[in-house]
Automatic annotation (TrEMBL):
Its EC number is 2.7.7.23, 2.3.1.157. GO terms for biological process: cell morphogenesis; cell wall organization; lipid A biosynthetic process; peptidoglycan biosynthetic process; regulation of cell shape; UDP-N-acetylglucosamine biosynthetic process. This is Bifunctional protein GlmU. Its cofactor is Mg(2+). It comes from Agromyces sp. G08B096. Residues 236-256 are annotated as: Linker.
């Protein structure tokens, strides 16, 4: 049920300078989704009456990511007054006379989950204070704002790293960047913010000190697990956060009945789906909307992007994107499956095989060293080792059609467009330029001609010529 008294403001306008990146910080991917999308997913779970996102840096890109994750989010544009305080001030303008609770979420704190946030909100509402701040104790608090408490332990104010004294820098309780405010109290104090600090910004954190000075009560509530509120400012923090999230995702699948042999080298995006009794071997990345059915064995050293893997299939040392692998089929080792590859049940794409836009029918096999592109293959056919579909004439791509129960010889070239009928054979080394009717054998290799004595005549003085001479002499002695 929608919480009519709750508005959520996601701060997403900052420049993310410390990332040193052309891509806006909040759009860097984390388990396959932009950082900011994780925050919006959490916001969605709380079912607030209003969700607003404040944007400015790379405004259109960030706004598009916000809308993609949570359609209906109100986009608020920050002006050129910098700081988290200014961002919230503009969001409050957009909220009009809303008078419930305002939950403010830093867009770069992606691991916080809805349960923790719901608990925080309930605690805030329970105490009836003007504002609550989520905090955490960090062994290394550098980079974060510190929670300053007075002698009796009561929460006093937040000091930013850049404005902190030596003694304040030594404090290990950090401001997580997650706040709950009564809308009225927040609105009153935002009006009093100044940019009088080391960064020349309107700090949202100063609202806390102002509320305290005005006699309001404020609470800092520490989270149980500090990593829940880890912020991402630079790429080292991005990698740490990604590893933490991945460990959670891997563990989730393990508890759901998936064997994951080496969690440290297995990376699974949030949107991936895996059935019980799948085995994931070391060095495997499962990305995008990949789905794996029960009994399949994937890896080692395999990357699957947006792939569908059927039950009991085996995919070894493979790189695949937008491929569909049927039940009991086998792929790799060392296969490269490009978009549009469909391998039906019990089929095989073997070693050093590249496929693209190719449908390989039930039980059909492309076992070794081949390129199969823009092709359909029927059922139970076998494509010989080292076969190439020559699908590109330099201007256009053309299709190759191979029927059912076909046997093609090794080192075949299929010059598309070309069709091989059901039950047909091709000889080794055939360059198939014309259609092959069903049941025919196609061969076009010229008869072999042996030119006796050629090496001794044309390569005299070489080791080959000496070996040839020795063999000839031995033959002549035998004859004598
Ligand atoms: C902020 C807090 C700090 C806290 C830390 C937690 C302030 C002043 N400091 O610091 O106390 O420990 O988060 O992670 O709030 N943003 C805007 N508009 C702006 C500036 C920032 O929307 O003008 C957004 C950013 O996109 C980001 C968030 O606000 O999502 C936090 O900004 P950032 O610059 O990363 O603040 P920190 O220095 O990490
Ligand atoms: Ca930050």
């Amino acid at each position: 049920m929608t919480d009519e008294k709750l508005a959520i403001v996601v701060l997403a306008a900052g420049q993310g300078t410390r990332m040193k990146s052309a891509l806006p910080k909040l759009l860097h991917p984390l388990a396959g989704a932009p950082i900011v999308a994780h925050v919006l997913a959490t916001a969605r779970a709380l079912d607030a009456a209003r969700v607003l996102a404040v944007v400015r840096h790379e405004r259109d890109l960030v706004a598009a990511a916000v809308e993609a994750e949570l359609p209906g989010t109100v986009i608020v544009d920050q002006d050129d007054v910098p700081g988290t305080g200014r961002a919230v001030e503009l969001a409050l303008d957009a909220l009009g006379d809303f008078d419930g609770e305002v939950l403010v979420l830093n867009g770069d704190v992606p691991l916080l989950n809805a349960d923790t946030l719901a608990g925080f909100l309930a605690q805030h509402r329970g105490t009836g204070v003007a504002a609550s701040v989520l905090s955490a104790h960090y062994a290394d608090p550098s980079g974060y704002g510190r929670i300053v408490r007075s002698g009796d332990g009561a929460f006093d104010r937040i000091v930013e790293q850049k404005d902190a004294s030596e003694a304040e820098l030594a404090l290990d309780e950090i401001n997580a960047g997650i706040y709950a405010f009564g809308a009225g109290a927040l609105r009153d104090q935002l009006a009093n913010l100044t940019t009088d600090n080391a960064q020349g910004e309107k700090y949202l954190t100063d609202v806390i000190g102002l509320l305290r000075a005005a006699g309001s009560e404020v609470e800092a509530l520490p989270v149980s697990e500090p990593w829940l509120v880890a912020g991402i400012n630079d790429r080292a923090q991005l990698a740490e956060t990604a590893a933490r999230l991945n460990a959670l995702i891997v563990r989730g699948w393990q508890l759901n009945g998936v064997t994951i042999e080496d969690p440290a080298t297995t990376w699974i995006d949030l949107a991936v789906r895996i059935e019980p009794d799948v085995t994931i071997r070391p060095g495997t990345q499962l990305k995008g909307a990949t789905a794996i059915a029960t009994g399949a064995v994937v890896g080692p050293d395999t990357t699957l992007v947006d792939c569908e893997i059927g039950a009991n299939a085996e995919v070894k040392r493979t790189d695949a994107t937008l491929a569909v692998i049927g039940e009991g089929a086998s792929v790799g080792p060392f296969a490269y499956l490009r978009p549009g590859t469909v391998l039906d049940a019990s089929g095989k794409i073997g070693t050093f095989v590249e496929t693209k836009n190719a449908r390989i029918g039930r039980g059909s096999k492309v076992p070794h060293l081949s390129y199969i592109g823009d092709t359909e293959i029927g059922v139970e056919s076998n494509v010989g080792a080292g076969s190439i579909t020559a699908n590109y004439d330099g201007v256009n791509k053309h299709r190759t059609s191979i029927g059912s129960h076909v046997r093609t010889g090794s080192h075949g070239v299929f010059v598309a467009p070309v069709t091989i009928g059901d039950g047909a054979y091709t000889g080794a080394g055939t360059v198939v330029r014309k259609d092959v009717p069903a049941g025919a054998l196609a061969i076009n290799v010229a008869p072999q001609r042996n030119i006796e004595g050629w090496v001794e005549q044309h390569r005299s003085g070489t080791a080959a010529a000496e070996a040839a001479a020795a063999a000839r002499e031995a033959r002549e002695t035998d004859v004598d």
